[in-house]
Amino acid sequence: MQTRLLGTKTIAGRKKAVARAVDLLRKGEVVALPTETVYGLAADALNPIAVAKIFEAKERPRFDPLIVHLPSRDWLEKIVDVSVQDWQLVLNLADKFWPGPFTMVLQKREIVPEIVTAGLDTVAVRISAHPVFAEIVRELDGPLAAPSANRFGRLSPTTAQHVLDELEGRIPLIIDAGPTEHGIESTIVTVREHSIGILRRGPITEEQLSEFAKIDLFTPAGKVSAPGQFPSHYAPKTPLHLIDNAESFSTEKNQRVGLLAWDPRRTGDRRSLKFAGIRLLSEKHDLREAAANLFRYLRELDGLGLDLIVAERVPSRGLGAAILDRLERASNDQPVAPSMPE
Q1: What pLDDT, on the 0 to 100 scale, is given for residue 111?
Q2: Residue 262 and residue 282: Cα distance in Å, rounded?
Q3: 8 Å CB contact between 204 and 93
Q4: Distance CA 302, CA 115 (A)
């Protein structure tokens, strides 16, 4: 299969790209699309055969559920069945964080195919804020299943080139709208019994959510209940380890080590000579900038032919918790992924 890449920089180019994407999606094909978080691999969420192509292209386990992206709020009640006591909280969260990098896991309706939810009785839903994605899903006038457009377990793609590197020859089309804004995947929560359970950290932080309800942090025990819950995930090919600071780290003889740095002081003095490659997440110690750079810089270090990548821990406050979550899952000190649920 030849993979075509279409840009959206000009009005004519965007119109052509949107039309081609919608045409392929209506025909049951998969298309890589930009979102505000990372690039996603999209298919008609109500077409089980189309959704199966997502799993095939990504080599994704069938027991890992997908996020369903809605065209509008009008689709929410068509896809989910929320209890009366939780409905107002769901609406309040949607009013605040949609469109945006925020996903809710709610009770599903029969219309949602089981392949989308991995057989679970819940479905993950969100509305993307990316203008190109939003235009395509509105034109399609139906929900899209769209996990990250990469091989399963690998670094999430934040540019169209990343998608091409991962999936060339596996999918027919990539829509290129430049680098993504947030650089890490959406926050995923459950809403039940007047509380919010955080299943995956992301751009919408615990501090922001705590304004709406009591917060619970859920750790999956064996059974995957939402995307991005595997203990080992988002990983480069090069072994990666987390460290507290680069100053105290010692390399072995003839070992080529790359540094993903948080502290600018580690990159501008003689100590930096022990690293074969360095990427600084943010010169200004800006966690949003660090999140946007995270996967791109890990990919760059991964391409240098290193023996090891070490990453300095970022502060765990706010968005830093989501960055640490991705780094911990990408590191080589993780337990094996949970087994397939019975």
Answers
A1: 96
A2: 7
A3: no
A4: 33
